[in-house]
Amino acid sequence: MTEIIRVQNAPGAAETIGAIIATSFHEQEISAWMIPPDDDRRRVMPPFFSMITESALIHGEVHATADMSAVAVWFHKGAEPLPEIPDRDARVEAFAGPHAERIGQMGEEMDKRHPHDPHHYLAFLAVLPGHQGRKTGTRLLEEYHRGLDEAGIPAYLEASSTRSRRLYLRHGYQDLGDPMFMPGGPPMFPMWRPPNPCPEC
């Protein structure tokens, strides 16, 4: 069983993690809504996810299996808003071109629903094709949740499919209001996990 490591903020780390997420998420409905052409999606998604991972390495933490088959990208959200990604709009426009509008639209909708209470935010949980179904995502969740439970910290995420929603329900998350819909796109499910003071109870 491969060990779980914390990814260090070293040169190239964000790009490596971004590529893993892009490959894992390529076939998701929300990804296809955001960037419909397949070739464009393969080009745009790696720098998009790398940009967000770059911020998480500063304002949160990134965990991965040692074989880099699965990653979890977390942000530490306190009472104040997270700092903006420097030059975010210009960077997205540069690598996404005409797809920048939908990327921005999705970000705005997600920001509207994001809770203000302090919590840790799971931005991405990604498992490479060929490694899915081996409970590596579950291991990443369980290990991180142990620390959250010990510290009494809640967690928040947006499940991008009904399948991932079922996974998160099994790990203590609850629906936080109604699903959110992008225009003509699939639902996303805001979910909240209160800390469990007695995980073995």
Task: Please render the helix and strand layout as text.
Layout: E1 4-6, H1 13-25, H2 29-34, H3 38-59, E2 60-65, E3 70-77, H4 88-96, H5 100-113, E4 119-127, H6 136-151, E5 155-159, H7 162-170, E6 174-175, E7 180-181, E8 187-193
Parallel strand pairs: 4-5
Antiparallel strand pairs: 1-2, 2-3, 3-4, 5-8, 6-8, 7-8
Helix pairs in contact: 1-3, 3-4
Can you give a write-up of this model?
- Helices cover 44% and strands 21% of the residues.
- It has seven helices and eight strands.
- It has helices at 13-25, 29-34, 38-59, 88-96, 100-113, 136-151, 162-170; strands at 4-6, 60-65, 70-77, 119-127, 155-159, 174-175, 180-181, 187-193.
- The protein starts with a strand and ends in an 8-residue tail after the last strand.
Short summary:
The protein has seven helices and eight strands; from the N terminus they run βαααββααβαβαβββ. With 201 residues, it is of the alpha+beta class.
